[in-house]
Amino acid sequence: MKYLNALPRISGQRIAIRVKPAAERALRAGHPWLFDQAIREQSREGQPGDLAVVFDSKRRFLAIGLYDPHSPIRVKVLQHHQPAAIDSNWFAGRLQAAADIRQPLTRQQTSGYRLVHGENEGLPGLVVDRYAETLVIKLYTAAWLPHLQHVILGLQAVQPFDRLVLRVSRNAEAITARHGLTDGCILIGDDLHEPVIFQENGLRFAADVVHGHKTGFFFDQRENRARVRTLSAGRRVLDVFAYSGGFSVYAAAGGAESVLSLDTSAVALEAAKANFLLNPTGTQHKTLAGDAFDCFEQFQAAGQTFDMVILDPPAFAKSAAETGRALAAYARLTRHALHVLEPGGRFVMASCSSRVTPDDFFSTVAQAAADAGRSLTEVTQTGHALDHPVGFPEGEYLKCLFATAR
Prior knowledge:
The protein is of the alpha/beta class. Helix content is 29%, strand content 29%.
């Protein structure tokens, strides 16, 4: 609790903002971001977390949100259309609505999932993940600091926890550090000296919520992992970009003959080994640290093949300018994978780049398969799980193809 006493206070003075016509239209449509260049007038300069009220050209209320002077997304919108008091009751209501959506997961032997999905649920720049009795808050903007007490009170009401961990994005680290808050600090509860164990669809996983990537685990692929479990019986599986072995463990639980987890990070692969130990099966599991493209060439040169290849690469396109390069990388991965995939083998490929549209992604994969002299019979295309809802166009990032290669 010592950290919470150092948080900045909520300013009692709001900032009045008027915006350009295009921004008016976007806010009327419910968009959660107001960019700095869209502001044509504001009453004063503000500090991170000041409440900003946005008006249209006729001085009518448009929205209210968190002001962030250090970000091109100058206002993170909390409420559209109708004025509201942004207080503990408001946060409690928004957090309760998010928790209600996740109720089905608690009946599926699942204690690990995303509890709050940022902009998509009216809480821009704020993510909360649940790992059993540990909650992890990730801040993507320091504008949340003055309101963190309200958020914590709301979380205690809707999802009781034993421990609360703070993770901070790089762009917010400098400001949070001024208040004694560092990435990975424990806001509430005992210190952590080992990974947190949680359940997902009855399987057990360990996550390093203090130092791990993002908050320690990728919950967004839960439903795709479950589908892999139903398709992997008797297959020799290659899991590329395996990270801590999520897909690998599900494949083994589904009866795979063997699983090879491939990732550039030796640390991640050690976590994958640990997750296999938490879920004993008769499946042979090996790990390989290396670059995916180089390893594919080595497999092909050695004549090594697989009956299922899973590709879950990182976001190749983080800006619009990188979209073409990302599509080229997806195409290259597809060709490589199909060169080592047996006829009749299962092909699973995902994209987590919001800049790449589903149409462009799926058509690129199909064309790359044809270029490799193979055809893909689609089994299904999937998108977001229920704990990763899509609330605005830029919030849609995940797509995954399940296919049979001929």
